[in-house]
């Protein structure tokens, strides 16, 4: 207590400490097999090695003629054409000195041959072909295993698979891939004032709900399966029932928006505690989003976000995305920042870490961050026009135009 006898407020938790606590005990979710055609965006659960060599045999890289390179290549050199090799239809025989086979791109180079001359550098008469231009031994032949050999490590565990990765896995003869199960995210938004888009009645007290849509989109982009648990009215029974339902549905991460502060209608913290969720984080030294909370109970984690739309979105970027990343086994930075320069002078900061909405411009390839004029935590129009979050550490001194800074891109 202080000198007046009133209880002393607990200090706000630094952002770095909160992030460390929130991500500390997150075990990677179970592994499942999915068809390679459905693996884009999933996180690989185990290292992937090639099941075959690519190519599986020496292949021609061009249309032309395959032949055995002599000790000395005297041009012009005339060879006897003894067959043909095309993709999927190999020559059934061997090439001896003085012979050649007509070959097409992707065709197997027959035994005895080691070089392919492109057709533009030959002349053909009947079953004879004449090489008219010098070339090096082994030219235009892709050797077996040229791309990768059987058993080669191709992709590491913890990699979020993109289109190129899926092509590589398919070429390595994987019909299905081991990936981490998608995290199940449940989202609730609390408040008596909320109505869904298109359902407003015109009452001045109504607020059209928006947070759930942005939060769901962020979670899906991060690989999660999202379940909208609906709007929850301001009542302890209703709030506890929503939390209980989330547990029954096997939700991995329950995300709530609203009710995270300490007002009479802010019931999320007591409801979570009543449902067996132990809160490890409540009130963080950041702007926007001070009343954020986090806890866990059983297999469910609960992330309580503020109700203001910008605060909810910024906190989801800072805390929900790292949670989902860790649950899927990604070895990514908890806060992926990039360097930039200030485009506007900034005043000294107070005790809270600021995440300022800003636009980006580029000069000589370097990013310049321009803070938006209005930083109100309810301004969705400003958030939608922002390119990044400009980070201002707690107690940061005044900064001038051109000073270095760190940003979190929002459009990556």
UniProtKB/TrEMBL annotation:
Its EC number is 2.10.1.1. It is an enzyme of class 2 (transferase). One of its GO terms (biological process) is Mo-molybdopterin cofactor biosynthetic process. Signal peptide: none annotated. One of its GO terms (cellular component) is cytosol. It catalyses: adenylyl-molybdopterin + molybdate = Mo-molybdopterin + AMP + H(+). InterPro entries: MoaB/Mog-like_dom_sf, MoaB/Mog_dom, MoCF_biosynth_CS, MoeA-like, MoeA_C_domain_IV, MoeA_C_domain_IV_sf, MoeA_linker/N, MoeA_linker/N_sf. Keywords: Magnesium, Metal-binding, Molybdenum, Molybdenum cofactor biosynthesis, Transferase. SMART domains: MoCF_biosynth. CDD domains: MoeA (cd00887). Pathway: Cofactor biosynthesis; molybdopterin biosynthesis. Residues 186-326 form the MoaB/Mog domain. GO terms for molecular function: metal ion binding; molybdopterin molybdotransferase activity. Its cofactor is Mg(2+). It comes from the Bacteria. Belongs to the MoeA family. PANTHER family: GEPHYRIN (PTHR10192:SF5), MOLYBDOPTERIN BIOSYNTHESIS PROTEIN (PTHR10192). Catalyzes the insertion of molybdate into adenylated molybdopterin with the concomitant release of AMP. This is Molybdopterin molybdenumtransferase. It comes from Azorhizobium caulinodans (strain ATCC 43989 / DSM 5975 / JCM 20966 / LMG 6465 / NBRC 14845 / NCIMB 13405 / ORS 571).
